[in-house]
Amino acid sequence: MIKKNNILINKIINNTRLYPNKKIIFDSKKSLTYFELINLAHVNAKKIKKIKSKFVPIIVDRNIDSVVAILSVILSKKIFCPISNNFPEERINFFFKTLKSDFCINCSDKKIHYLNEYKINFSYTKKCKIEKFYNFNDTFYLLFTSGTTGNPKGVKLSFKNILNTLIWSKNYLKWSKQKMGIATQFSFDISMFDLFSGLYFNVPMYIMRNPSNPIESIKEIKKNNITSIFSVPTFFSNFVKYNLIKKRLPLKRIVSGGDFFPPGDILKWKKYQKKTEIYNVWGPTETSIVNTMHRINKKDIIQITDGKSIPVGKSNPLMEIKILKNKKELASNKIGEICMIGDCVSQGYIGHNKNSKNYIKLNSKKAYLTGDLGYFDNNKLLHIVGRKDNTIKISGYRVDAREVEKIVSLNFNISNVLLLKVSISEINFLCLAIENKKKIKLDEIITILKRKLPLYSIPKKIIFFKNFPLNQNNKVDRGKIEKEIFKKA
Questions:
Q1: Does residue 443 sit in helix, strand or coil?
Q2: For every residue of 6-59, which 3-state class applies, written as one string?
């Protein structure tokens, strides 16, 4: 059997030889050149090679230590699994049990019990000879999903999966004269796109210290001359909420994915940061981080102003997309389930999981049913309309949660709105949760909803939050919102 060259890792190692003294990674306390980074990874890989487990959990933080740990596991030819230091101990123990590991690399101040804990060694070596990498189809890393609908699932991704994403992304993102801000935790898939884009395309990266604090983040963006950030909509919406985008920023582009970007916030970014390109993107962890990209243009701004949806991108030979119903392809403008096909589809979940049924074969190719609903317009642009589980059944009727949320968001210029089904004393009713600093008259909201929706879609209760609680990935935490609703009910 002929060994296939591992283009991804060998390219990163080659960059080290070509640009040994280039500063490639920064955090708030230190920075490393390519050579320093690979040298340290080489030193630590010697220790990691000796452990028996093929999966190596890494307790990650927003620091360079986490990056060194990830590269160390790669050079040891094992599989890294980044785990946020902010996760509760019970969840971390669940991950360790799933991975069957009694060893972890701890890059944080969090105390880990019952495990052999390894801290990154920052001593350099004189000789650093890295052997060539092969086994292109092997598992590269494992990421756990957020687990909002049950236990988190460990998704296995190969070197080939990630390289496919990086090569495809060159159609949209140019990296010349850019400096990237890493705004998500290393346990979240967006950060994997950032890290390996930076190392592969030779782009300096700055690890932002506290992305949940928009005032601190703006200072970091200016001080470090950050030009490109890929994060969840909440991160970018916070700058709007705190009126921080009215003065010129060095940002050349923002890439928003992982959730819906509130239309009002997009309009404000385009109004105050005219030279900043905004990319609307989409893609699940199971299909290698991101599968579509669309740069928002003048036509899209008109669409947003008129209350219409904007696209997330097109199908591509490297990111093939089909809209299916009962596994049969639908015509343009027909809403169905979005299915990803080809090299972007991951290797499945670790262990046995009932959700593995979403991994299918389509025309003899690997495919994944994403659970997201969408359609292609007449220009072959993909629009996301929600999820299969977004439909709420109440009193025998089906209510599209996204439709209700969109009406309130557009008519009252609100960034975050959630419609939930709540059950109290065995009675089910719809509850609307709104994040807004200033309370809006309830009568006004109900009047607008009655004008546009049938009566069964009107929420029986409306609750206001100054700030929605967020999970580890800076996405809105629906579970915590539901708990607050129960308290106030």
A1: helix
A2: CHHHHHHHHHHHHCCCCEEEECCCCEEEHHHHHHHHHHHHHHHCCCCCCEEEEE
Helix/strand/coil percent split, the chain, to 5: 35, 30, 40
Cβ(339)–Cβ(330) below 8 Å: no
Q: Residue 26 and residue 17: Cα distance in Å, rounded?
A: 20
- Nearest alpha-carbon partner for 63 in 188, 210, 255: 210
Hey, what are 20's tokens? Answer: 């040994």
Show the DSSP H helices in 153-227 as ranges.
Answer: 159-169, 189-201, 214-223
Helix (H) or strand (E) holding 382: strand 381-387
- Cβ atoms of 66 and 106 within 8 Å: the answer is no
What are the mean pLDDT values of the chain's consecutive 10-residue runs (489 residues total)?
76 95 97 97 94 94 98 96 89 90 92 84 87 84 75 91 97 96 95 98 97 96 98 92 95 92 91 97 95 97 88 97 94 95 96 79 94 94 84 71 84 84 75 84 89 83 87 79 77
Residues 241, 390: Cα–Cα separation, whole Å: 26
Q: How many CB atoms lie within 10 A of CB 189?
A: 25
- Residue 298, Ramachandran bin (φ over 0: left; ψ between -120 and 50: alpha; else beta): alpha
Could you tell me which of 27, 56, 62 has the C-alpha nearest to residue 186?
62
Listed in sequence order, the residues at least 6 apart from 327 whose beta carbon sits closer than 8 Å to its beta carbon are 360, 362
Residue 252 burial by Cβ neighbours in a 10 Å radius (0-12, 13-18, 19+): middle
Distance of CA 309 to the CA centre of its chain: 21
Residue at token pair 């030009």: 227
| Main-chain dihedrals φ then ψ at residue 93, nearest 5 degrees | -65, -35
pTM of the entire structure?
A: 0.85
If we measure between CA atoms, which residue out of 200, 199, 220 comes closest to residue 29?
220
Q: How far is it, in rounded angstroms, from Cα 41 to Cα 292? A: 33
Q: How far apart are CA 402 and CA 90, in angstroms?
A: 33
DSSP 302: H
**Using CA atoms, how far apart are residues 333 and 330, in angstroms rounded to an integer?**
8
385-397: b or e for each residue (b if 16 or more CB lie within 10 Å)?
bbbeebebeeeee
462/485 Cα distance (integer angstroms): 9
